[in-house]
């Protein structure tokens, strides 16, 4: 590590091998950070690191965020290699969309373990190094499904609602030591996860109920995360920012209103 490196901020992004996490990693790289990408999918992670082609600034770490020992080892690897952590993005997540009666306890646990335990464990593991550097910023990637209930999301929606409350707990406690914690609640975003769980009917419903009439992009989520980690958000703590094209703001009647506007 050179003295120049020591001054370069470091962002840790979980679930960074693909999708929203990868785009967040790209945002931090483009904005002068070194980046550690933590992911359970070793094959995709290796391919992503090769593609980014920036070994001086990108550290891929193969780990399961739901496993306390693996999380500890991953953060130690980041500490050894980069020596500091300025931002942590708890983005790793899994989705199971099933009716209550068909959601197995194993599926419920897998969703909770990844989406909720993962953010708890990674934050706990990163905080000591963040404090050593004088503070930092944590962003938890929740979901609009954590703000509004909808069918088939008993495990996913409940895990994200809990993550939103965890964000507030963390913000209140960690704010006192200079670490701001906020959440982003994305609406539907075009990624592999969305392709797996959004049927054609769900896609059409989303278009109908989102004022902007489209899915979001990974870049739009990454830009909001970047804002929350930047000096421009230095007094923002404990907030949930819905990046959802207005979905959370809308009530009934939107398709009719849209038809009238176009008439
Ligand atoms: P994705 O499935 O494309 O990527 C998720 C990444 O997380 C994958 O690389 C996966 O290997 C990794 N991961 C999963 N479990 C892990 C674990 N236990 N440990 C480490 N890594 C793990 O999903 P995405 O669409 O990019 O979603 C990213 C985040 O955004 C998730 O938290 C998701 O719930 C949230 N989100 C997505 C949407 C959407 O429409 N895509 C909407 C709202 C919220």
Condensed summary:
The chain has 263 residues and is α/β, with parallel strands linked by helices. Helix content is 49%, strand content 14%.
Descriptive account of the structure:
- The structure is a single chain.
- The protein is of the alpha/beta class.
- It has one domain: NAD(P)-binding Rossmann-like Domain (Rossmann fold, 3-Layer(aba) Sandwich), CATH 3.40.50.720.
- Helix content is 49%, strand content 14%.
- It is built from ten helices and seven strands.
- α6 links the parallel β5 and β6.
- It is globular.
- The structure holds nicotinamide-adenine-dinucleotide.
- Nicotinamide-adenine-dinucleotide is lined by residues 14-15, 17-21, 38-41, 44, 64-66, 91-95, 114, 118, 141, 143, 186, 188-189, 191-194.
List the helices and strands and how they pair.
Blueprint: H1 3-6, E1 10-14, H2 19-30, E2 34-39, H3 42-52, E3 58-62, H4 68-82, E4 87-90, H5 105-132, E5 136-141, H6 154-174, E6 179-186, H7 192-197, H8 200-209, H9 218-229, E7 240-243, H10 254-262
Parallel strand pairs: 1-2, 1-4, 2-3, 4-5, 5-6, 6-7
The structure holds nicotinamide-adenine-dinucleotide (NAD).
CATH class: Alpha Beta
Count structural domains.
1
Q: What portion of residues is helical? A: 40-55%
Order of helical and strand elements:
HEHEHEHEHEHEHHHEH
The rounded distance between the terminal residues' Cα atoms is: 63 Å
Largest sheet: 7 strands, parallel
Mean of all residue-level pLDDT scores: 96
Model regions low in confidence, pLDDT < 50 over at least 5 residues: none
| CATH evolutionary superfamily | NAD(P)-binding Rossmann-like Domain
User: How many helices does DSSP assign?
Assistant: 10
Q: How are strands sequenced across the largest beta sheet?
A: 3-2-1-4-5-6-7
Question: CATH architecture, please?
Answer: 3-Layer(aba) Sandwich
Quaternary structure classification? single chain
**CATH topological fold name:** Rossmann fold
List how many beta strands DSSP finds: 7
The set of bound ligands, ions and cofactors reads: nicotinamide-adenine-dinucleotide
């Amino acid at each position: 590590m050179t003295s120049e490196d020591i001054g370069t901020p470091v962002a840790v992004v979980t679930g960074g091998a693909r999708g929203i996490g990868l785009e967040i990693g790209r945002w931090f790289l483009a904005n002068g950070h070194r980046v550690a990408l933590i992911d359970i999918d070793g094959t995709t992670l290796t391919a992503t690191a090769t593609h980014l082609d920036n070994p001086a600034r990108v550290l891929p770490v193969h780990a399961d965020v739901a496993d306390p020992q693996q999380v500890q080892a991953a953060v130690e690897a980041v500490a050894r290699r980069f020596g500091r952590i300025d931002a942590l993005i708890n983005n790793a997540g899994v989705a199971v969309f099933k009716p209550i009666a068909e959601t197995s306890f194993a599926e419920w646990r897998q969703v909770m373990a990844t989406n909720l335990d993962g953010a708890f464990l990674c934050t706990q593991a990163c905080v000591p190094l963040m404090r050593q550097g004088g503070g930092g910023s944590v962003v938890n990637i929740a979901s609009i499904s954590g703000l509004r209930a909808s069918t088939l999301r008993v495990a996913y929606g409940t895990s994200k609602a809990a993550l939103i409350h965890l964000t507030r707990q963390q913000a209140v406690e960690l704010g006192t030591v200079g670490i701001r914690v906020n959440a982003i609640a994305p609406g539907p975003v075009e990624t592999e996860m969305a392709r797996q769980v959004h049927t054609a009917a769900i896609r059409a419903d989303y278009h109908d109920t989102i004022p902007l009439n489209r899915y979001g992009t990974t870049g739009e989520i990454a830009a909001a995360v970047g804002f929350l980690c930047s000096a421009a958000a230095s007094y923002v703590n404990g907030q949930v920012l819905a990046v959802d094209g207005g979905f959370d703001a809308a009530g009934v009647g939107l398709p009719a209103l849209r038809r009238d506007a176009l008439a």
